[in-house]
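Subject: Protein entry, chain in single-letter code together with its fold tokens

Area: Proteins and the way their chains fold up in space.

Attached in line: The record itself begins immediately under this heading.
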Amino acid sequence: MAANVDTGGGSLLLAWQLKDKRVLIVGGGDVASGRVESVLAADALITIISPDEGLHPLTKRYIKSSDRIIYHDRVFAGLGDLVAVDMVLTAVDDVEKSREICDMCRALRIPVNVADIPSSCDFYFGSQIRDGPLQIMISTNGKSPKLANIIKKKIELSLPFNAGEAIKKVGELRTRLKERAPGVGGDVGRRRMRWMVDLCTSWEMDDLAMLDDEMIKKLLDDGWENNRVPKMEDVGGKQTRTAIGMHWMSDALVLPALGFLAGAACTAFVLQRPHP
């Protein structure tokens, strides 16, 4: 298969850290509610400017329930609304007003996204998959949001069921490892990276998702300290047969898992019984 040499026309896909940054959202309708959801998930501080009659029910719910949102019941007032703002998102029906806001933002070097006007966007939202710490973005560079959503659904079907939980547990292990063997770069850094790579490639995703504090400690004591990657059973995992195949679980998870499977079996039995 020949390499694709057409490298132009794309975007630089980034994970933008918005924690405690001030994001201004102009508009409060359906599209704006989606913008609020996205930036709230990134722990941003949000200012919403929109007349009350234009608020979507979901936007109203966010305003009522979140202490990270400041709401102004009015229209955009001009440059004064852009003071101390780190990002601007507009989602209003007035195209000329949207472009005017875009021009102001660019003059002030504030990143801006104008809904449905790609040429007035410094960045795109794309279609996103979220599973705990796992985030995947599918972007069509503003060409076809619907196709991005279709592709998103296909990718979701191919992801391991507990990928997010596995990433969370590996992150905890990595933090504990860096505390035990601190330093950036050098021999320790390279060894740390090799050990984590070996662990992630030799253990199944299900195994990684089952890690608990005691197992992490044994991994570090018996594995890292001896420069080897133990098997799941070597650090306290237990093998159990279930209706969905063979899995390794820590002692603390075996009984709850069996209880869950028993409940699922009872539910299936009830659902399969003929109705009177």
Summary: The chain has three domains: 22-125, 126-159, 163-237. Residues 240-276 have pLDDT under 50 and may be disordered.
